[in-house]
Design brief:
Layout: H1 2-8, E1 10-15, H2 18-22, E2 34-37, E3 45-52, E4 74-82, E5 91-99, E6 101-103, E7 106-113, E8 125-134, E9 140-150, E10 157-160, E11 170-173, E12 178-186, E13 202-207, E14 210-215, E15 219-222, E16 228-234, E17 249-255, E18 262-270, E19 274-279, E20 300-304, E21 315-317, E22 332-334
């Protein structure tokens, strides 16, 4: 009698697979110990049963009542998100307690609704499903299985991590090296994707269909976990910056040679430092100027080293010999948009 009782007593927990769940009018089959992509739509339910001691997987290919324990017990399902570091505890993301239920004349089914917790499959990582039942003899039966959620590589994009929001413009000045541009790669759900191949990284500044500047094969440096990439020490040179005046707003694009990496950010590209001055000589068409003559406008065009007009508000210290400023201003003059000085 003890032997028969032991054979019929709960021995282990089994998760019912898809072919068997369909016969119950339920839908529930997860790829246990497998991988899914972020955004995966899970089944509506997970179905578990308690198997008696006399059951073996080869006993039957179908659900049979004699191989399912009907005791009115409670089963607990806990879903935990495992941390990357072993030193950090796992995070409990879902917990449900269910009693047995009857479906298609099969009694002893533990049905856990899952579709309402589908949000957990948007965050990448390893999810641990723990099932447990406290039996009448105070023993505890447990089952543990995992599912790995991987980032959605099909929606991969790069983000600039230099500010709290990715809408802040990247500030660039021609001729001045950009020391470091920090970039991360994420999918549509914000899951970070490691950088595997960083060869052939290029950076382009463009405005609409116009490419203003381009830097090929820039130097990159990866973090220890390959989740962050630093693009280092690159310089932009172009003579096409006048088309952006006065706001100097453009787009900055980072891309790889195979186009698997791509990111576009707003940027502000300022001209380089004053380098060349062109003087309007029309005022000196006369052979001689008489003393006391007032020169209303004396125009200077100021360019950077790449032949772009310098930006409005740039200050120049102008020294004159034999002339003076009647407006009693100092020799420091500011470049204006209309007259370049």
């Amino acid at each position: 009698m003890l032997k028969k009782r032991k054979e019929k007593a709960p021995a282990w927990i089994e998760l019912i697979r898809n072919s068997e769940v369909d016969t119950l009018g339920l839908g529930g089959d997860l790829p246990y110990e497998g991988d899914v992509m972020a955004g995966y739509q899970p089944p509506h339910e997970i179905v578990a049963v308690l198997r008696p001691g006399n059951y073996t997987p080869s006993s039957t290919g179908h659900l049979e009542q004699k191989y399912i324990v009907k005791d009115e017990l409670e089963m607990v399902m806990e879903v935990k998100h495992l941390a990357r570091s072993k030193d950090c505890p796992a995070k409990l993301v879902d917990r449900k307690v269910k009693k047995t239920s009857l479906h298609n004349d099969i009694h002893g089914l533990y049905v856990f609704p899952l579709r309402e917790a589908s949000w957990i499959f948007k965050k990448s990582g390893v999810y641990q499903f723990n099932f447990s039942v406290s039996c009448r003899d105070t023993s505890i039966i447990q089952k543990q299985t995992t599912i790995t959620v991987c980032p959605d590589l099909n929606s991969r994009r790069c983000l600039f991590t230099g500010s709290s929001t990715n809408s802040d413009p990247v500030n660039i000045r021609l001729g001045c090296p950009v020391i470091c541009l920090a970039v991360k790669s994420v999918d549509q759900y914000g899951n970070e994707i490691p950088f595997l191949d960083t060869s052939g990284i290029t950076i382009t500044i463009f405005d609409g269909d116009d490419v203003l500047a381009h830097v090929d094969d820039v130097e990159v440096e990866l973090s220890s976990d390959s989740l962050a990439m630093n693009v280092k020490d690159f310089v932009f040179k172009t003579s096409k910056l006048d088309i952006l005046r006065p706001k100097y707003e453009a787009k900055l694009k980072l891309s790889s040679l195979d186009n698997k990496l791509s990111g576009i950010w707003p940027c502000k590209v300022k001209p380089g430092l004053p380098s060349t001055i062109i003087m309007d000589m029309s005022v000196f068409l006369e052979e001689n100027l008489t003393p006391g003559r007032v020169i209303d406008n004396f125009l200077l065009e100021v360019f950077d080293q790449f032949s772009n007009h310098v930006e409005e508000g740039t200050e120049l210290n102008i020294h004159v010999d034999g002339l003076c400023f009647l407006d009693k201003k100092s020799s420091v003059q500011k470049v204006s948009l209309s007259h370049n000085v």
